[in-house]
Structures are given as structure tokens and as C-alpha cells.
Amino acid sequence: MMTNFLYYFIRIFFEGLIWLIFIRAILSWLPVDPYSPLIRIVVEITDPILEPFQKIIPPMGGFDLSPIAAMFVLMLLEQFFLRLILG
């Protein structure tokens, strides 16, 4: 019972973060109001995840590749934690 809860919690948590990073990457290409409450929420949630990657990975050709690296690491962490709880 508790294993099922943890499994679904981990899945929802990591998938939500991955989607928010994807949305943030798409929004960076669009003219959006940075003071919009919805945009602020997305930025405030994703900044702590993306900033370490942005320090390590410089933009290449004007493109910020840090969201790709962050999503990859989040996917790896999700799989690690799922395997840990499932045994």
C-alpha cells in the first residue's frame, strides 16, 4: 500500500517537474509577460533546478541546452528512486 503511494508520488513529482521545465523552455521562445503570475510560478519552481545546469553548460549558438540536461537528470533520478522503492 505504502509502496504504491510512493511509486505514484515519485512519478507525479518528477513528471510534473519535467513538464514545467519543458513549458519554461517553450516560453523562452515566446513574447510573454515575465510578471504574469503563472509565468512567475513556473520560473520560481524551475529556477533552482536549471541554475546549476546553466552554470555548467554554456549556451551554444544562442540556445540554452540546460533544460535538456536537467530533464535527462530528472528522468534518471526518477528511475533511481522508483527502482529503490520497488526493490
Describe the protein in words.
Helix 1 (2-27) packs across helix 2, helix 1 (2-27) runs antiparallel to helix 3 and helix 2 (37-56) packs across helix 3. The two termini are 15 Å apart. The protein has helices spanning 2-27, 37-56, 66-86. The model has no long low-confidence stretch (mean pLDDT 95). It is mostly helical and 87 residues long. The chain has one domain.
Topology summary:
Elements (H helix, E strand, L loop, with lengths): L1 H26 L9 H20 L9 H21 L1
In brief, what are we looking at here?
This protein is mainly alpha-helical and 87 residues long. It contains 3 helices and no strands.
Which sequence of SSEs, written as H and E, runs from N to C? HHH
- The coarse overall form would be globular
Helix content: over 70%
Would you tell me the structural class of the helices and strands? Answer: mainly alpha
List the total number of helices: 3
Q: What attributes does this structure have?
A:
mainly alpha
